[in-house]
Amino acid sequence: MQLKQYYLACLSHASYLITDAKSKTAAVVDPQRDVAQYVDDAKAAGCQIKYVFLTHFHADFLAGHIELRDQVGAKILLGQRAECEFEATKLKDGDRIEFGDTRLQILETPGHTPEGISILVFDLTTSSDKPQSVLTGDTLFIGDVGRPDLLASIGVTADELADMLYDSLTNKLVKLPDSTLVYPAHGAGSMCGKNLSKETVSTIGEQKKFNYALQPMSREDFKKLVTQEQPEAPGYFLHDAILNRQERPSLKETVLDSMKPLPLHEVLELKEAGAQLLDVREAIDFEGAHLIGSFNVGMKGKYATWCGTVLNTEHPIVLITDEGDEEEAVTRLGRIGFDNVEGYLVHGMQSLHNHPEWIGKIERITAVALADQLRQDNPPLVLDVRNDKEWNAGHLEGSLNIPLNHLRERVGEIDPNRMVVVHCEGGYRSAIASSILANLGRSNIMDMVGGYKAWVASNLPTQSPVDIAMGV
Hints:
- By secondary structure, the protein is of the alpha/beta class.
- The chain is 29% helix and 22% strand.
- It is built from 17 helices and 24 strands.
- It starts with a strand and ends with a helix.
């Protein structure tokens, strides 16, 4: 028996392939939507993928169970409380799937969602009593536990789910042998918890020592602890939570439909009709020259998460990319269920070579140059688009904090008559924010290169709520 972890950093998502050489059988757990890697690796191991498990209906990505069913005939397996449109086998506590030297045994572990399960993995050549590992989905993370307040839990309150989570952890998972390896479905950066570790594997024993949520405490203390200070979930989470329950087209179909080269005049017609223009190039390239009316979410960052935050599935998307990046941009949107890509601007920005009237630019400014401007008469307004926790840890004196995911709704707080300098932590989110402001008709904007990190690295002054309280 072999267990392989796949980690998709842009979505902080871990999935798993379990192969059994004796029976030539494989199972996949919580797959991403583009499934070629599992199919190829199973084939290389001489195995056929016969099973695909979802530990729960994920909200932050579209899982690849439909793709594996259609491509290799895998049977879909879910927890017994799961309700879905497609044919699936429902599993309850103690149910087993055995093939060759491998046993996969179900633990019902609701809490993050009502239908959540964990999967005990036994290597029968080693032991039939002690699991080698447990795949915990979003119930138990490394350093954290699954949040009980996400919209994935439709029809169930956060309080009810927190009760379930407490029972799943204290009555089931922490009672596993300390040596049991813990493999979760997410790592640091995921919005499915608040304190996830960068590590992607641990043991039950280590988590009992160091995971804040597994320390001895009352049910009520636990519920207070796991529901406070959770990050705000992107709007697309509800869309994906519902879509993961439904019969739907495969990613292959979506990509084929979306890979349409569109000439500039068609792109402009689509824009006029309400299409969303998405430029996926790096910030420096976008701000140097872009098609007026386009949003910038670079592929070299948390691309899917931020696309799901600033775009919607109701209006078509037209991509603007460097040549050769079109399919990757479509695929990564498909991973979060954004199947509404109409096509891409043929030849990218080269299409605008003879159309300067459609080219927009956004100025960039260094931290040192901004510091100099802030000392002058009529200084610019500094707009910090980081989240509240980041801003409270330290910020530029006098800056206005509007988290990026609330920028559109709070744009009225920004003085339209002042130059605005936008920054985030490192420069990725500020480019997105600058493109949003440009779309809202603002022309007097600049993006601070390198963000807050560059400001601190330049030894420029910062402020925190503690400083303010002390009169510093």
